[in-house]
Amino acid sequence: MHFQWYPGHMTKAKRMMQENIKLIDLVIELTDARIPVSSRNPDIDDLGKNKARLILLNKADLAEEKWNDAWMEYFQAKGFSCVKVNSKKGGGVKSIHAVIQEACKEKIERDRKRGILNRPVRAMVVGIPNVGKSTFINALAGKACAKTGNKPGVTKGKQWIRLNRNVELLDTPGILWPKFEDQSVGMKLAFIGSIKDELLQRTELAAEFVKFMQRHYPGVLAEKYETSEEGEAYAVLEGIARSRHCLVRGNELDLEKASALLLDDFRDGRLGRLTLEYPDQI
Ligand code: G4P
């Protein structure tokens, strides 16, 4: 299978990021808790050097709790602040304010020594498409926070959201381009729906997903679809099609439909909380 992101999008995203990153003190990087490494673009480490860094395991509600904790330890051991969040429901979002202060304490101390008091920390949210950046910004900013951009004395064109006395957030998130060089990374991004399905052969993708489930979560597919999950991946897809009455032309099994159903069930959490990569394999 071949995955790609258009080079034009990548160049634009990179340019925007380079411009905006100059304005900020703190990079808040969203990852998908189901694939915390594959949903990152490591180029951010270079772009964001000399900035305070906070990594969020977003969509933590869809990933296994024990792995969320293991991933938090992994990132903390690398020197990042790390918090697991569910931006959709707001879980974990409140605790971020304290973590931001902690992550920026060196900058605050530097300012204090120079006699600069109460200058708010400026932050930007970044992440690959669909990781939940807009949802997170809405959850963090809520309704109460007025935009502070486009006023005299404020950089023209940039909108800052004043979160509280101490923090301002750039209202447009930075888009990181996903990295597909590694096939297995592309595959995992496709599983979670980061790459649009029409770009791919859905049945082939679903078959790869079946193989992953057979290896890492035995029993889940059998129970959910009341079918055998043993043997060849396409046979399992046929079993799902049969069990869910995915048929074409009367009685032919519709594997395309069964594949879409399986992937949607996974993406919406209907197969339970699943993590697709593990710190000990990185
Ligand atoms: P982006 O700005 O990074 O591109 O992502 P965006 O906020 O648009 O979020 C992409 C999808 O991820 C949205 O779903 C959003 O609801 C969902 N999402 C964001 N954060 C979380 C989370 O913590 N947990 C879960 N379960 N989902 C999250 P959508 O299908 O586009 O819309 P809808 O289903 O919310 O209507």
TrEMBL record:
Looking up InterPro entries in the UniProt record yields:
G_CP_dom, GTP-bd, GTP-bd_ortho_bundle_sf, GTP-bd_ribosome_bgen, GTPase_MTG1, P-loop_NTPase
Q: List where in the cell it is found.
A: Cytoplasm
Q: What PROSITE patterns does UniProt report for this protein, alphabetically?
A: G_CP
Q: Where is the CP-type G domain?
A: 10-178
Q: Keywords in alphabetical order, please.
A: Cytoplasm, GTP-binding, Nucleotide-binding
Its domain of life reads: Bacteria
Q: State what this protein does.
A: Required for a late step of 50S ribosomal subunit assembly. Has GTPase activity.
Q: Which PANTHER family match?
A: MITOCHONDRIAL RIBOSOME-ASSOCIATED GTPASE 1
Query: Which family, according to the similarity comment?
Result: Belongs to the TRAFAC class YlqF/YawG GTPase family. MTG1 subfamily.
Q: What is this protein called?
A: Ribosome biogenesis GTPase A
Protein encoded by which gene: ylqF
